[in-house]
Design goal:
By secondary structure, this protein is α/β, with parallel strands linked by helices. The protein has helices at residues 43-46, 100-113, 128-136, 147-159, 174-184, 209-221, 242-251, 253-256; strands at 2-3, 10-16, 19-24, 27-32, 52-56, 62-66, 73-78, 81-86, 118-122, 139-144, 167-171, 190-193, 198-200, 206-208, 230-235, 260-269, 276-286. The chain is built from eight helices and 17 strands.
């Protein structure tokens, strides 16, 4: 288990009956989470400081109810990194706090490498991992099929005062981009990807993790430099064991490079119960440096 327990601006205060009560700096949100199947009381009755609640719709999606007046945009910090937070559709805020375990890993591996690192971030979302890599001194290529997410990444880079650092932003289909990079002969010392279960590319291309992930990782292996420092796959797809992703890395990256390959659940602590909330799977290859 990898536990993201070094936050100051974020914490899960409580969790019960499919809901988690979170503090994002000074803003308290109540959001649904399907992993929370235990009963610890009605959180809306227990707490009076809730700024906004997200309600799911029976027809899909959902909506926010602002009980107070939370800001439209606000900032949270993790160590020396700063991220912009917003209330989005389908309950999101633009940041997955459990990924702090990967930001720490990324920064540590890049800093200790003592060489210029080129990192590729696929399905890069709002760019938290890209910001972490830039902060540690890497050059970054950030790819996502959504222009809105890429623009949000630019905001996060600016919020962390890293605008002068080497980063390329691309709105593109990940698979097509990787195939072009192979033809160009480009190489990367580190790759991180956060593939959705299902999705659409920039031009409507269909992505299905069960059908497409192995091929993508296999292709990405061709983009790795002679001495890569890490390869990370994050997933929130239910129904797939962490050993599935370990096997994928062993069958691809592990056949070409020596190093460690392992997978762990990533989790967040729950303040008022002492429990931990599982938040997905992280699979890693890392070199022996």
């Amino acid at each position: 288990m990898l536990l993201a327990n070094d936050w100051k601006d974020y914490e899960i205060l409580d969790a019960s009956n499919g809901e988690k009560l979170e503090r994002w700096k000074d803003v308290v949100l109540l959001r649904p989470d399907p992993q929370i199947i235990w009963d610890n009381g009605n959180l809306k009755d227990k707490y009076r400081n809730i700024d906004a609640v997200y309600y799911r719709s029976n027809k899909g999606g959902g909506y926010w109810e602002n009980l107070k007046k939370p800001p439209k945009v606000w900032k949270v910090k993790y160590r020396d990194l700063t991220f912009m937070i917003k209330q989005m559709g389908f309950k999101h805020t633009g940041l997955f706090p459990e990924q702090a375990v990967n930001w720490d890993f990324i920064m540590d591996k890049i800093t200790k490498s003592n060489r210029n690192i080129k990192l590729l971030n696929l399905f890069g979302y709002t760019g938290a991992a890209s910001v972490a890599a830039l902060k540690a001194g890497a050059s970054v290529v950030h790819v996502d099929s959504s222009r809105g997410m890429v623009d949000w990444c630019k905001e996060n880079v600016k919020a962390s005062n890293l605008e002068d650092k080497p980063i390329r932003y691309l709105v593109d289909d990940v698979l097509k981009f990787v195939q072009r990079e192979i033809r160009r002969g480009n190489k990367y010392d580190a790759i991180i990807m956060d593939p959705p279960s299902y999705g659409r590319g920039a031009n409507g291309e269909i992505w299905d993790i069960e059908k497409d992930l192995y091929r993508l990782v296999e292709l990405c292996t061709l983009l790795l430099s002679e001495n890569p420092i890490f390869f990370i796959i994050n997933t929130y797809t239910t129904g797939l064991s962490k050993e599935v992703f370990t096997n994928i890395l062993k069958m691809t990256v592990g056949k070409k490079y020596d190093g460690k390959i392992y997978s762990e659940e990533i989790c967040l602590p729950i303040k008022n119960s002492g429990l931990v909330l599982p938040c997905g799977i992280c699979s890693r290859y890392e070199n022996n440096e």
